[in-house]
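Technical annex, item 7. During the second reporting period the consortium partners agreed on a shared format for inverse folding records so that results from different sites could be compared directly. Each record opens with the tokenized structure and is followed by the designed sequence. A conforming record, contributed by the partner at site C, is shown below for reference.
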């Protein structure tokens, strides 16, 4: 077997001295922040790669699994603090620069001290500020596995040299590093690994656009051209002559030339056209590579319907929605867990073991909502008949479902009003 493999290698050249890929070597070259900012501001594809995923993670927001009055209080606190907007800005900055932070303000005179949740009363949170990576410096990473801050910076420093305790900071990372020991407490920009594919996709479109003015060219062979151009008068006369010929062609669709076009004394006219038949596929291929590198389907990245027989793009969008939902659960929920506990105390003035669910990105139509409602109503009626669930518990569950289902506008407020 070794001999066969070796012979095949010798014949094909793969892995041998003639294989050009054997010299490939990956060297990490960090992208400067100025380059990342320029790409985000000037390259439409880079901007969409950075912005789309955070926007989709937050556009439907979340639903608290709580009684209507509690859910309303939590929503009021989120709105007062501008949580959704600030979280969106911070996630975009984290993807662009490799990290960003939300600074939690409770009015404490010394932010270097821990922010204890028990000290936050109703309305106790004052603000949430978005801090780009350049405005907050992460300290050394806690390496003690017995510490509750293991894996996080021990402290932060903001503009002016003010130290901030990590309990007052929500740290959001961009692309994860292979080992946090090699970084400065943050991650990589998502454009670090994608910018080459993005540049190739946009360059392919730019090259095709540059070819458009050359799509059709008139070529006229003029006997004695070099001699005519050797003097100023000859150059002027030749230029005026063919400028007039171009006007004649534009006005009347005719081009007057001297001679029969075949003899050495006659001028010869040709028209050359470029073939663009395969270029759209080339440009589309580069865009597909960029979309695959960004984990965003082409239908979402470009906002176009898929091409091809029986192509709907539903499976791509469904897979993308599953990907976003997984990132919400695995990355975003743990990142804001500390803030959520403070938010509950800010809204209610006490601790409550509340949970929430991220609303699905694919929103059901009115017909689909009605069908789902019918099935759930039948299930609730069956449970009531069988007596499997106590009536009070079942009624509470049905109330929460109807309040969150958006089937009957105003029903949540009606449930919140006292009976009678």
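Designed sequence (site C submission):
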């Amino acid at each position: 077997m070794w001999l066969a493999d070796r012979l095949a290698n010798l014949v094909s050249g793969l892995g041998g001295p003639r294989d050009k890929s054997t010299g490939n070597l990956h060297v990490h070259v960090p992208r400067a922040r100025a380059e990342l900012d320029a790409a985000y501001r000037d390259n439409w594809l880079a901007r969409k790669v950075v912005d789309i995923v955070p926007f989709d993670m937050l556009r439907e927001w979340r639903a608290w699994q709580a009684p209507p009055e509690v859910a309303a209080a939590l929503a009021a606190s989120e709105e007062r603090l501008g949580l959704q907007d600030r979280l969106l800005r911070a996630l975009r900055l984290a993807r662009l620069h490799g990290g960003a932070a939300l600074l939690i303000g409770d009015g404490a005179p010394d932010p270097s001290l821990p922010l204890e949740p028990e000290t936050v009363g109703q309305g106790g949170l004052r603000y949430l500020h978005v801090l780009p990576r350049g405005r907050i410096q992460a300290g050394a990473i806690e390496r003690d596995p017995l510490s509750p801050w293991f894996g996080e910076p021990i402290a932060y420093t903001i503009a002016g040299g003010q130290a901030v305790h990590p309990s007052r900071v929500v740290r959001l990372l961009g692309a994860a590093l292979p080992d946090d020991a090699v970084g400065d407490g943050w991650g990589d920009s998502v454009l670090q690994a994608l910018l080459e594919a993005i540049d190739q996709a946009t360059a392919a479109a730019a090259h095709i656009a540059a070819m458009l003015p050359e799509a059709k060219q008139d070529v006229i062979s003029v006997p004695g051209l070099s001699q005519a151009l050797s003097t100023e008068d000859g150059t002027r006369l030749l230029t005026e002559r063919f400028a007039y010929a171009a006007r004649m062609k534009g006005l009347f669709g005719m081009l007057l030339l001297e001679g029969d076009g075949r003899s050495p004394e006659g001028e010869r006219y040709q028209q050359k056209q470029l073939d663009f038949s395969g270029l759209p596929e080339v440009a589309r291929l580069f865009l597909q590579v960029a979309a695959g590198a960004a984990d965003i389907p082409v239908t979402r990245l470009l906002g176009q319907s898929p091409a091809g027989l029986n192509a709907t793009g539903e499976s791509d969008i469904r897979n993308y929605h599953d990907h976003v939902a997984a990132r919400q659960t695995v990355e975003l929920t743990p990142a804001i867990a500390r803030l959520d506990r403070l938010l509950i105390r800010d809204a209610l003035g006490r601790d409550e073991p509340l949970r929430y669910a991220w609303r699905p990105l694919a929103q059901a139509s009115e017909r689909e909502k009605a069908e789902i409602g019918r099935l759930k109503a039948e299930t609730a009626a069956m449970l009531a008949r069988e007596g499997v669930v106590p009536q009070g518990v079942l009624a509470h569950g049905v109330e929460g479902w109807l309040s969150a289902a958006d089937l009957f506008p105003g029903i949540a407020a009606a449930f919140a009003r006292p009976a009678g």
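Residues 314-335 form the longest helix (22 residues). Residues 364-420 form one domain. All partners now use this format for quarterly exchanges.
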